[in-house]
Design a protein that fits this description.
Distance between the termini: 36 Å
CATH class of the largest domain: Alpha Beta
Largest sheet: 5 strands, mixed
Radius of gyration: 28 Å
CATH topology of the largest domain: Translation, Eukaryotic Peptide Chain Release Factor Subunit 1, Chain A
Protein name: eRF1 domain-containing protein
Organism: Ammonifex thiophilus
Structural class: alpha+beta
Strand order of the largest sheet: 7-6-5-10-11
CATH superfamily of the largest domain: eRF1 domain 1
Strand content: 15-25%
InterPro entries: BaeRF_family10, eFR1_2_sf, Ribosomal_eL30-like_sf
Order of helices and strands: HEHHEEEHEEEEEHEHHEHEHEEEEHEHE
Number of helices: 11
């Protein structure tokens, strides 16, 4: 299932605070999920116990009853659920449910009650974005697409040499002898091999053209090229520059490995490419912010420029942690706890960053980049948040 921007927007626009957002690692290959009951069911029961104990006292009697009913509904569903992937994601209320069963694996089980929490889903979409994989040799090419942990064959093509229409070559023609008795190929053999090489080069140009059209149509985050080294080089030199820049790495893989095996080979290269891209985005944002250009750093400054609609790309350390204070009247953000807004004197509320960020970003059309690993460490020195501005 393609999870597009509209699906995320629909969840973020829900004006209700009675939704359970549930992220479960249901991977049946994990030993803890092979027990009876599996680990994710035990975790969910305990998490629901803690949730009810924490929030029930602050709810009205009607809402407490609704939460209890929702709990029973969710427990019944998960207890009879047969995993169709590695992750189960549920957004559910008494009269609403949206489910995603994904092959991509959530980092950890997570439960939230209130407005839909899409932040872990955004992380998965960022880490497992759509990728095009092409394996090629001198006579065949195989096209695969990968998305959210699943790979599928898109198409195949091959070079068919119909030599019946070619001039007749006597490939057994006598060869000349060079110095010291070395054999030199006859001109017939050379002519035949040159013609084959010409056809192969034409095939690589056709593959490159097909990749360019495929990329224009699908808009992959990355491309991977693999197969025979000479063939990969032949295709690369024929790609348009804007498409060649999308090639994250070369993949060493036989043409007809299974989709699963190809994806296993591809994952480390894609992860490395994603970390490189994140480092470049952070460098660009920090350079701009520290030089007074089109950049911002730190939660308060970034969120206030985001509120003004000036952010093009929002960069945030994953997992998203912490809270921020917001004025109910003017929506100004600040980090220090205050009873009243320092700008307008309005009432101040405390909000979790993981709830504020996706909603504000989608409302203002900003791209969200959640970063991990070394890029996250670098950004952590600046409050864990930066932005590249539109103006």
């Amino acid at each position: 299932m393609l999870i597009d921007r509209q699906i995320i927007a629909n969840l973020l626009e829900m004006e209700r605070d009675d939704v359970l957002s549930i992220y479960l690692n249901v991977d049946p290959t994990r030993p803890e999920n092979q027990t009876s009951p599996p680990a994710y069911r035990i975790w969910l029961k305990n998490a629901l116990d803690e949730l009810e104990e924490k929030v029930a006292p602050s709810l009205s009697r009607e809402k407490r009853m609704a939460l209890r009913e929702l709990r029973e509904q969710v427990t019944s569903y998960v207890n009879t659920y047969l995993p169709r992937g590695r992750s189960l994601i549920l957004f559910t209320a008494n009269d609403f449910q949206q489910e995603f069963s994904l092959l991509a694996r959530v980092n950890e089980n997570y439960l939230h009650y209130g407005r839909p929490d899409v932040t872990p889903l955004l992380w998965l979409l960022d880490e497992y974005e759509r990728v095009g994989i092409v394996l090629v040799d001198s006579f065949q090419a195989r096209f695969l697409s990968a998305y959210l942990g699943k790979a599928a064959v898109y198409g195949e093509t091959e070079l068919y040499l119909d030599t019946t229409t070619w001039p007749r070559y006597d490939l057994r023609a006598p060869t000349a002898r060079g110095t010291h008795g070395a054999h030199i190929k006859g001109s017939n053999v050379d002519a035949f091999e040159d013609r084959v090489a010409e056809k192969v080069a034409g095939f690589w140009r056709e593959v490159a053209d097909r990749i360019a059209r495929w990329q224009a149509e699908e808009k992959f985050g990355y491309l991977l090229l693999g197969g025979e080294e000479k063939a990969v080089a032949g295709v690369m030199e024929n790609l348009p520059p804007e498409v060649a820049r999308k090639v994250a790495d070369k993949l060493i893989a036989p043409l007809y490995e299974s989709e699963h095996e190809i994806l296993l080979r591809a994952k480390p290269k894609l992860t490395a490419a994603e970390r490189r891209r994140e480092e470049e985005l952070i460098r660009k944002a920090l350079d701009a912010a520290l030089s007074g250009g089109q950049g911002a750093v730190g939660p308060a400054d970034v969120l206030n420029t985001l509120r003004e609609g000036r952010v093009h790309t929002l960069i945030v350390v994953w997992p998203v942690k912490g809270e921020v204070h917001r004025c109910r009247a003017c929506s100004f953000f600040f980090l220090e706890e205050k009873s009243r807004c320092p700008l307008c004197g309005g009432e101040v509320v405390k909000e979790a960053l993981r709830e504020v960020i996706p909603r504000l970003a989608f409302y203002h059309g900003a791209e969200v980049e959640l970063v991990a690993g070394e890029p996250a460490r670098q950004l952590g020195e600046y409050g864990g948040m930066a932005a590249i501005l539109r103006y």
